Amino acid sequence: MFERRVDELPSSYLVPQESGNRTGVRRLSITDATGAGLKLNADPKAPVECTLSPYTAFELENAAHAWELPDVHYTVVTVAGRQMGVGGDDSWGAPVHDEYLIPANRDMVFEFTLSKYNA
Prior knowledge:
Elements: E1 22-25, E2 27-31, E3 36-42, E4 48-53, H1 57-61, E5 76-80, E6 112-118
Antiparallel strand pairs: 1-4, 2-3, 3-6, 4-5
């Protein structure tokens, strides 16, 4: 079991950006200080990917420096069936290797259950 505060999850990149995607997620609990919150369950045979962030994508895209981000006052939860990386062997233009591409020409489905949680 891993446990982190949401405000500890973002990577401290020079320019703020999305980070911290977790793959192979089967169970996730998001709770407040009292232990109340949400619980996510995915099919153990078909785990999902999750990102928890104290910032929206809009806030991250519009901040050139960390000090431009707003005070933390909510949690943004992103759940995806799969997510593809941005590059291949380097960060300056190499394409993603074929075996890591997500086909855009077919439907894909993923499922999870979201419910109330009290520790």
